[in-house]
Protein backbone atom coordinates (compact mmCIF):
# COMPACT_ATOMS: atom_id res chain seq x y z
CA UNK A 1 0.00 0.00 0.00
CA UNK A 2 1.36 3.46 -0.90
CA UNK A 3 2.44 5.72 1.93
CA UNK A 4 1.26 8.78 -0.02
CA UNK A 5 -2.24 8.97 1.50
CA UNK A 6 -0.80 8.53 5.00
CA UNK A 7 1.69 11.35 4.50
CA UNK A 8 -1.06 13.57 3.06
CA UNK A 9 -3.30 12.80 6.03
CA UNK A 10 -0.48 13.55 8.45
CA UNK A 11 0.20 16.89 6.76
CA UNK A 12 -3.47 17.84 7.03
CA UNK A 13 -3.42 16.80 10.68
CA UNK A 14 -0.39 18.98 11.40
CA UNK A 15 -2.02 21.91 9.62
CA UNK A 16 -5.14 21.43 11.70
CA UNK A 17 -3.09 21.29 14.90
CA UNK A 18 -1.25 24.45 13.88
CA UNK A 19 -4.51 26.29 13.23
CA UNK A 20 -5.88 25.13 16.58
CA UNK A 21 -2.86 26.31 18.55
CA UNK A 22 -2.76 29.52 16.55
CA UNK A 23 -6.38 30.29 17.44
CA UNK A 24 -5.69 29.36 21.07
CA UNK A 25 -2.76 31.77 21.24
CA UNK A 26 -4.83 34.53 19.66
CA UNK A 27 -7.61 34.01 22.19
CA UNK A 28 -5.10 34.01 25.04
CA UNK A 29 -3.51 37.23 23.78
CA UNK A 30 -6.92 38.87 23.42
CA UNK A 31 -7.88 37.91 26.97
CA UNK A 32 -4.60 39.33 28.27
CA UNK A 33 -5.15 42.61 26.42
CA UNK A 34 -8.73 42.90 27.70
CA UNK A 35 -7.58 42.06 31.24
CA UNK A 36 -4.92 44.79 31.17
CA UNK A 37 -7.37 47.27 29.65
CA UNK A 38 -9.93 46.58 32.37
CA UNK A 39 -7.31 46.89 35.13
CA UNK A 40 -5.96 50.12 33.63
CA UNK A 41 -9.42 51.66 33.30
CA UNK A 42 -10.35 50.77 36.88
CA UNK A 43 -7.06 52.24 38.14
CA UNK A 44 -7.62 55.46 36.18
CA UNK A 45 -11.18 55.90 37.46
CA UNK A 46 -10.01 55.20 41.01
CA UNK A 47 -7.38 57.95 40.78
CA UNK A 48 -9.84 60.47 39.32
CA UNK A 49 -12.43 59.75 42.03
CA UNK A 50 -9.76 59.99 44.75
CA UNK A 51 -8.66 63.44 43.56
CA UNK A 52 -12.29 64.52 43.24
CA UNK A 53 -13.03 63.56 46.85
CA UNK A 54 -9.87 65.36 48.00
CA UNK A 55 -10.84 68.48 46.05
CA UNK A 56 -14.28 68.49 47.66
CA UNK A 57 -12.79 67.90 51.10
CA UNK A 58 -14.71 64.68 51.81
CA UNK A 59 -11.57 62.57 51.60
CA UNK A 60 -9.86 64.26 54.52
CA UNK A 61 -12.62 64.46 57.14
CA UNK A 62 -12.67 62.41 60.36
CA UNK A 63 -15.06 60.00 58.63
CA UNK A 64 -13.59 59.78 55.14
CA UNK A 65 -15.99 59.14 52.26
CA UNK A 66 -13.73 58.59 49.28
CA UNK A 67 -15.77 58.12 46.11
CA UNK A 68 -13.09 55.76 44.78
CA UNK A 69 -14.06 53.20 47.44
CA UNK A 70 -17.26 52.55 45.50
CA UNK A 71 -15.09 50.61 43.04
CA UNK A 72 -14.04 48.07 45.68
CA UNK A 73 -17.11 46.01 44.71
CA UNK A 74 -15.71 45.40 41.21
CA UNK A 75 -13.64 42.28 42.10
CA UNK A 76 -17.02 40.55 42.26
CA UNK A 77 -17.24 41.03 38.49
CA UNK A 78 -13.63 40.62 37.35
CA UNK A 79 -10.25 39.64 38.76
CA UNK A 80 -8.78 42.56 36.77
CA UNK A 81 -10.18 44.81 39.49
CA UNK A 82 -7.65 43.44 41.98
CA UNK A 83 -4.53 44.95 40.36
CA UNK A 84 -6.61 47.85 39.06
CA UNK A 85 -7.67 48.91 42.55
CA UNK A 86 -4.20 48.39 44.01
CA UNK A 87 -2.47 50.46 41.34
CA UNK A 88 -5.19 53.11 41.49
CA UNK A 89 -4.83 53.38 45.26
CA UNK A 90 -1.05 53.67 45.04
CA UNK A 91 -1.24 56.42 42.42
CA UNK A 92 -4.03 58.22 44.27
CA UNK A 93 -2.02 58.16 47.50
CA UNK A 94 1.05 59.72 45.92
CA UNK A 95 -0.43 63.09 46.88
CA UNK A 96 -1.08 62.00 50.48
CA UNK A 97 0.44 64.31 53.11
CA UNK A 98 1.49 61.17 55.01
CA UNK A 99 3.95 60.32 52.25
CA UNK A 100 5.47 56.86 51.59
CA UNK A 101 3.91 55.40 54.73
CA UNK A 102 0.45 55.91 53.24
CA UNK A 103 1.57 54.57 49.86
CA UNK A 104 2.52 51.28 51.51
CA UNK A 105 -0.26 50.84 54.08
CA UNK A 106 -3.03 52.24 51.86
CA UNK A 107 -2.08 50.05 48.91
CA UNK A 108 -1.70 46.98 51.14
CA UNK A 109 -5.17 47.49 52.65
CA UNK A 110 -6.74 47.97 49.22
CA UNK A 111 -4.94 44.97 47.70
CA UNK A 112 -5.83 42.63 50.56
CA UNK A 113 -9.45 43.80 50.56
CA UNK A 114 -9.70 43.28 46.79
CA UNK A 115 -8.20 39.79 46.98
CA UNK A 116 -10.63 38.76 49.72
CA UNK A 117 -13.57 40.33 47.87
CA UNK A 118 -12.70 38.34 44.76
CA UNK A 119 -12.21 35.11 46.73
CA UNK A 120 -15.61 35.46 48.43
CA UNK A 121 -17.50 36.79 45.39
CA UNK A 122 -19.84 33.80 45.15
CA UNK A 123 -21.18 34.18 48.68
CA UNK A 124 -24.43 36.11 48.33
CA UNK A 125 -27.25 37.29 50.58
CA UNK A 126 -30.45 37.77 48.61
CA UNK A 127 -28.34 37.95 45.48
CA UNK A 128 -26.02 40.65 46.87
CA UNK A 129 -22.29 40.12 47.59
CA UNK A 130 -22.53 41.57 51.10
CA UNK A 131 -19.58 39.57 52.44
CA UNK A 132 -17.32 40.73 49.59
CA UNK A 133 -18.34 44.34 50.20
CA UNK A 134 -17.28 44.07 53.84
CA UNK A 135 -13.74 42.89 53.08
CA UNK A 136 -12.28 46.32 52.21
CA UNK A 137 -14.14 47.77 55.22
CA UNK A 138 -12.42 45.36 57.60
CA UNK A 139 -8.99 45.58 55.93
CA UNK A 140 -8.98 49.37 55.94
CA UNK A 141 -10.37 49.62 59.46
CA UNK A 142 -7.53 47.44 60.76
CA UNK A 143 -4.56 48.38 58.58
CA UNK A 144 -5.19 52.11 58.11
CA UNK A 145 -6.11 52.56 61.77
CA UNK A 146 -2.87 50.87 62.76
CA UNK A 147 -1.01 53.24 60.45
CA UNK A 148 -2.74 56.36 61.77
CA UNK A 149 -2.31 55.32 65.40
CA UNK A 150 1.40 54.56 65.00
CA UNK A 151 1.94 57.88 63.24
CA UNK A 152 0.42 59.78 66.14
CA UNK A 153 0.69 63.51 65.53
CA UNK A 154 3.89 63.25 63.47
CA UNK A 155 4.96 61.76 60.17
CA UNK A 156 7.24 59.05 61.55
CA UNK A 157 5.77 55.57 62.06
CA UNK A 158 6.56 54.34 65.57
CA UNK A 159 5.11 51.46 67.59
CA UNK A 160 5.68 53.57 70.68
CA UNK A 161 2.76 55.75 69.53
CA UNK A 162 0.36 52.80 69.45
CA UNK A 163 -2.47 52.79 71.98
CA UNK A 164 -5.45 50.46 72.07
CA UNK A 165 -8.00 53.18 72.81
CA UNK A 166 -6.81 55.40 69.98
CA UNK A 167 -6.58 52.40 67.64
CA UNK A 168 -10.21 51.40 68.21
CA UNK A 169 -11.34 55.02 67.89
CA UNK A 170 -9.56 55.31 64.55
CA UNK A 171 -10.88 51.90 63.47
CA UNK A 172 -14.43 53.04 64.17
CA UNK A 173 -14.02 56.25 62.17
CA UNK A 174 -12.22 54.61 59.24
CA UNK A 175 -14.59 51.65 59.28
CA UNK A 176 -17.66 53.89 59.24
CA UNK A 177 -16.48 55.77 56.17
CA UNK A 178 -15.60 52.53 54.43
CA UNK A 179 -18.93 50.97 55.39
CA UNK A 180 -20.80 53.89 53.84
CA UNK A 181 -18.88 53.76 50.56
CA UNK A 182 -17.83 50.10 50.13
CA UNK A 183 -20.93 48.36 51.46
CA UNK A 184 -23.61 51.02 51.11
CA UNK A 185 -22.48 52.63 47.87
CA UNK A 186 -20.73 49.53 46.55
CA UNK A 187 -23.84 47.36 46.74
CA UNK A 188 -25.88 50.08 45.01
CA UNK A 189 -23.27 50.11 42.22
CA UNK A 190 -23.35 46.31 42.05
CA UNK A 191 -27.13 46.30 41.78
CA UNK A 192 -27.11 48.97 39.08
CA UNK A 193 -24.45 47.21 36.99
CA UNK A 194 -26.07 43.82 37.43
CA UNK A 195 -29.63 45.01 36.84
CA UNK A 196 -28.77 46.95 33.69
CA UNK A 197 -26.62 44.08 32.34
CA UNK A 198 -23.83 46.65 31.96
CA UNK A 199 -21.43 44.39 33.83
CA UNK A 200 -21.81 41.70 31.17
CA UNK A 201 -20.62 44.13 28.52
CA UNK A 202 -17.97 45.93 30.56
CA UNK A 203 -16.28 42.89 32.02
CA UNK A 204 -16.94 40.21 29.41
CA UNK A 205 -14.05 38.71 27.42
CA UNK A 206 -15.20 37.83 23.89
User: Radius of gyration from the CA trace?
Assistant: 23 Å
What percent of the residues sit in helical stretches (DSSP H or I)? Answer: 55-70%
Low-confidence parts = none
Multimeric organization: single chain
Looking at the structure, the CATH topology is Arp2/3 complex 21 kDa subunit ARPC3
CATH architecture verdict: Orthogonal Bundle
Termini Cα gap: 47 Å
What can be said about the biggest beta sheet? none
How large a portion of the residues is in β-strands, by DSSP E? under 5%
Can you give a write-up of this model?
This protein has 206 residues and is mostly helical. The mean pLDDT is 85. It has a single domain (38-202), classed as Arp2/3 complex 21 kDa subunit ARPC3 (Orthogonal Bundle). The termini are far apart. Helix 1 (4-56) runs parallel beside helix 2 and helix 3 (100-119) runs antiparallel to helix 4 (130-151). It is built from six helices and no strands. It is 70% helix and 0% strand.
Amino acid sequence: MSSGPKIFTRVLSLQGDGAYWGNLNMQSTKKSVVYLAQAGLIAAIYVVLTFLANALGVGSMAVQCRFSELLTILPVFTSAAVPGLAVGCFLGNLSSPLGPVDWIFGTAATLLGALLSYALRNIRWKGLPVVSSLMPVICNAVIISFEITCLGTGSQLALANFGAQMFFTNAGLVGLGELIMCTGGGLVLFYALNRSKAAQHLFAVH
